[in-house]
Amino acid sequence: MQKRLAVVFILLFSFSAVQSQELTYAERLGFPKGSKVIILHIDDVGMSWDSNQGAIQAMESGVANSLSIMMPCPWVPGFMHYMKDHPNVDAGLHLTLTSEWKDYRWPPLSGRPAVPGLVDQEGAMWRSVELVAQNASADEVETEIREQVRRARELGLEPTHLDSHMGTLFATLEFIERYVKVGIETKIPLMFPGGHATMVTKTSRVPAEWNGPLKATGKRIWEAGLPVLDDIHNISYDFEYPKDENLSDEQLQKLATKQYIESIRQLKPGLSMVIMHCTAPSEVFKHIGASGRVRKADMLAMTDPAFRKFLNDEKIILTTWRELKQLRQKAGVK
């Protein structure tokens, strides 16, 4: 899989490092000054049976507290059946415009006639962010993400938030505009780091001409009555593990937890979203992709008592998108 193409959208926010504001967005929402407030968020739910099971385990037996669902994928109904018995799960939409795997693929919900630019020669979505940007129009992108919101609501889910699979919606300013437009119109909170963005900007490169529009977009989202993130932690996909394939679950868990602790310590105060891909890989998952061990490590870290203890000892505040929306409604214009 691409070297975590979700970083595409993360690299867009270098402007935030120099953004001057007296209060973090966490403080604007009413959290204590100087506090680290994080969402422990699971991507790719609905993508496979394995990803569903990993998300459930990470939340029911661990500290993960939020997730997002890939509406075009085959295992969405399976997770929606789970949601009927667990309606309070903080579940948003992992808006999906790519289908990156070799043999396991999905088409857009809107269908080829409505969004031909989102469809490749196999009848599925393009495999990479770059190919979507080259072939799809902003109108087609908006059509598809609206259809994914529509399907979620048809299935009985009111999304707690919207984010972007592989960062495709952050590939161009035009795509960002449609993403923000849909979020504001539907009143669904958006993943958008408009604060100090310290961790995001460590490896970022962004065209200078983007800085103004992106900064203004964060302000626009806040003024529309939706919460805004200060930062995003999206590095677990690149955590380093030994090549030894015979690591026990206990060894893998210890290595993953150590890297989560070290990296979360690097987060600056404010509201941050920690992105992961908790998965319980079955024998089938290796036929989907080669990332099963990294994804399993995410799940094991979330269920590690040592990680829970770290969060408690460091007085890190856990929040959800549902809570953030409620706090934003109370925050007013400050």
What do you see in this structure?
The chain is of the alpha/beta class. It has a single domain (7-331), classed as TIM Barrel (Alpha-Beta Barrel), CATH 3.20.20.370. It is 39% helix and 10% strand. It has helices at residues 7-10, 25-28, 49-60, 76-85, 129-135, 138-154, 173-186, 211-223, 249-265, 292-302, 305-313, 321-331; strands at 36-45, 66-69, 91-95, 162-164, 231-233, 270-276, 317-318. Strands 1, 2, 3, 4, 5, 6 and 7 form a seven-stranded parallel beta sheet that branches. β5 (231-233), α9 and β6 (270-276) form a beta-alpha-beta unit. α3 (49-60) packs parallel to α10, α7 packs parallel to α8 and α9 (249-265) crosses α10 (292-302). It starts with 6 loop residues before the first helix and ends with a helix. The model is unreliable at 1-20 (pLDDT under 50).
Distance between the termini: 42 Å
Which value, in Å, is the CA radius of gyration? 19 Å
Residue share in helices? 25-40%
Task: State the major sheet.
Answer: 7 strands, parallel
Counting DSSP E segments of at least 2 residues, the number of strands comes to 7
Quote the CATH topology.
Answer: TIM Barrel
What would CATH call the architecture?
Alpha-Beta Barrel
Cα shape: globular
Number of spatially distinct domains: 1
Give the percentage of residues in beta strands. 5-15%
Query: For the residues shown, what is the average pLDDT?
Result: 91
- What is the CATH homologous superfamily assignment? Glycoside hydrolase/deacetylase
Number of helices: 12
Q: Could you name the CATH class?
A: Alpha Beta
By secondary-structure content and strand pairing, the structural class works out as alpha/beta
User: What low-confidence regions span 5 or more consecutive residues with pLDDT below 50?
Assistant: 1-20
Q: What is the N-to-C order of secondary-structure elements (H for helix, E for strand)?
A: HHEHEHEHHEHHEHEHHEH
